[in-house]
Amino acid sequence: MIIAFLSAVVLDSNLVWTEILQICLSCLAIASGLFFVLAGSIGVLRFPDFYTRLHAAGMTDTLGAELILIGLILQSGFTQTSLKLLMIGFFLLLTSPTATHAIAHSAHTANLKPKLGKHSFSKVQRDRS
Amino acid sequence: MRHASLLTLAMAATWLMLSGYFIGMILTFGFISIILVVWMTKRLSILDNESVPYLNILKTCKYYIWLFIEIVKANIQVVKAVIGPNAEISPSLIKIPMHTDIDIAQTMFANSITLTPGTVSVDVQKDHILVHALLKEMSKPEDFYEMHCRSAKAVSIDLKDN
Amino acid sequence: MVTFLEYFNLGAAFFIIICMVLMLGRLLGGPTLYDRLLAVNSFGTKTIIFLCIFCFIINRPDGLDIALLYALMNFIATIAVLKFFNYRCLGVPLIKEQIEAEE
Prior knowledge:
The complex is a heterotrimer.
Chain A: H1 2-9, H2 17-46, H3 50-76, H4 80-109, E1 119-120, H5 121-128
Chain B: H1 2-19, H2 24-44, H3 57-83, E1 88-89, E2 92-97, H4 103-115, E3 119-124, E4 128-133, H5 144-154
Helix pairs in contact in B: 1-2, 3-5, 4-5
Chain C: H1 2-29, H2 33-57, H3 64-87, H4 96-102
Helix pairs in contact in C: 1-2, 2-3
């Protein structure tokens, strides 16, 4: 993949250096966003109880989604497409914490007790299995 | 009158951004629907600072830029907790005092607590928020005071003295 | 050069699909109702990102409207399901004082 990138980007003499910079930055943003999304998914599978899983899901919702949207905005330049992407990012920033708070609040009113205190969660899973 | 004109401007910008067509018929449709919405809002008498919050939009943008940096910092800590091999977490429920009773300031504060990974606001009462924190470093109530001040300033509301 | 970005976007889309499959595991095996709801909400967010990337792959930016709609629908669906399971009815006021006054 790196070889394909080098041969496609660096050796192509038609490109201006601003275009190369734009492509590199957008690939960097999308790749780090994908890393955060994957970490959030793993966290939702791995954490021991409901309230801690909320944190992992929130990580995906905020930084992962926003970074991928920023990368796509960098790819498209300043057009109507990028304005729509900004709008999607704005709605995600408003709605995802509200939905997370709603889920947490109704779990709290339904008397779901969180597991408190210091513990190592990889050990907990090993004990169960 | 100022609120009505601001609302008209914001809705026209949204229409042009989402449709992208500059044909006469489509623009007429947009014009008619904007007039309808402004008339209905006026009849419902909800034209005030809360439904048209565009006056302090610059402060809000500045606040969200500050919040984004905080989110990045907190994200790195949570990622370490998720991926680390024998990762240890210490969840705790803490009460954070609030020095305001205005709805929009409370909403802003609780929203930004939930946006920061590692802390989720579980219950909002009149004078405090119940927060579930994932790590030990995030569970000090004093650390939230700066975010409280900044979020109140972003919607231009003064805090009460404690 | 266009081809490199196309391949990159395709890889990103497949990556998102893998994450969605991981989230399905929590959806099927979640012990409580709230775990499942959390998984559905997170799945919806990943669907929005997937739709955005897919629009760039097939090079038709009209599809972003669908992603915008999905972002709003996802939120409303979560709130509606939560409200239904709390009160067993959708026509209940959400403000605390009104509920106490009615009781």
